[in-house]
């Protein structure tokens, strides 16, 4: 069901201005939509966020029961037992959405874009999804960006990384004043991934809550262009 929903027109594509040679997925946070995060980023950049050669894909998560909201329906990528770094992961839910979003990645590959030219990224829960994809399900991706995100202490990602020799580079952003997802959770995630040989860079942003800011998008864009440059 999740796969079917993800493949509906609720996916927003921003086409490159020239030849399409790379793709970037941007996953929204819990309870949001692809349209919402696109508008947020466009407002910060004061224009539509786009690249000469990179297609941007903004999917919307399926509406499904979300335990932290008492089982109410919400647009979430996967269910959580709790918004806490110590909570056990819902592996079945994560696996279902990873397979569904992998189909979207496969669509890009069918259209001629190599997996080594595809980057996954996201905000909050969307950043966690990006990390699940890059460090468990699709380790051949070009890169991963996680904004205000974390992985649970017992994450299946850490177990998977013990068997992965080569992994995509990671760029993390996190506000120092984040009260929803504390900076320490993002820092712990960064440290754990570093220990497992992920080339990870964590950028802390002073005086910022659980949000995306202009300086973040500017650095995000610069990093993306280095990872998947025009060819």
What would you note in describing this structure?
This protein is α/β, with parallel strands linked by helices. A seven-stranded mixed sheet has the order 1-3-2-6-7-8-9, with helices on both faces. Strands 4-5 form a two-stranded antiparallel ribbon. α3 crosses α4. The chain is globular. The N terminus is likely disordered.
Structure classification: alpha/beta
Q: Compute the CA-based radius of gyration.
A: 16 Å
Strands, count: 9
Low-confidence stretches: 1-9
Main beta sheet: 7 strands, mixed
Strand content: 15-25%
Count the helices. How many? 7
Order of helices and strands: HEEHEEEHEHEHEHEH
What is the general shape?
A: globular
Strands of the largest sheet, in order across it? 1-3-2-6-7-8-9
Distance between the termini: 37 Å
Q: Averaging pLDDT over every residue, what do you get?
A: 93
Share of helical residues: 25-40%
Which key terms come to mind for this protein?
231 residues, alpha/beta, two-stranded antiparallel sheet, 7 helices
